Here is the input.
Amino acid sequence: MSKFFSYLRTKTFRKNLLIAVGSILTFLIILFYSLGFYTHHGEGIPVPKLKGLALAEAIELLEEQGLRYQINDSIYLIDQGPGVVVEQDPDPNTNVKSNRTIYLIITKDAPNIKFPDIEGKTFLEVRSILNNYQLKVGDTTYRSDVAKDVILEALFNGNILRKGQQIPKGSQISLVLGDGLGASEVDIPNLLGLSLSEARMALLGSSLILGNVTFEGASDTVNSRIINQFPAINDTLNKVSIGTSIDVVLKRGN
Here is the structure.
């Protein structure tokens, strides 16, 4: 043992130790620079920003940069159409090697849902229901009906929707509501060609009143027929309030 410790104090040991340490350091330096050269250390391609692009545009951009792609997942977003990039990995401006695979998440088509039951509900109730089902309220129109602001019909792409019908989530639904005037307005009857007694019966059935009666020529209530009425039916007026007076003009037939 004493000889071993004596050897450690010799000049020969110190020389051999320095040579060994130097050899190891030289090997490590050569290895480090060789790996850097082999892997092009410090060189890379910045990943382009793909979020918000259509998939076809994103693929074209990646191929121009010498990069590959892989669709990792697809999700549905109510405010995005299908085939739009929403996430990417690595992030934009990250330096990567040529031929690196960029992982993408894109949007997909809306899943179908069953249309909810909205019959007899008010507009405020239906708007809340549609929102819960991730459906959008589109155009709203009114139709003469006793019920005010109650949904009479729901339409998708111009077709009437029924409870339980399958439609894409996020669809825009048009609504037809009652105007609350159905109980106070009636259709104007066409009195032309009727006798005075027939006109009275027609007006009575419509809850309207016979107004002023005038004759063109001789006053003959038996043989005369109505040739004019006021108000008359036209493109802008076909309903009047219950109890409205209808004036008529009669003329005796030949």
In short: The chain has four domains: 9-38, 45-107, 112-179, 185-252.
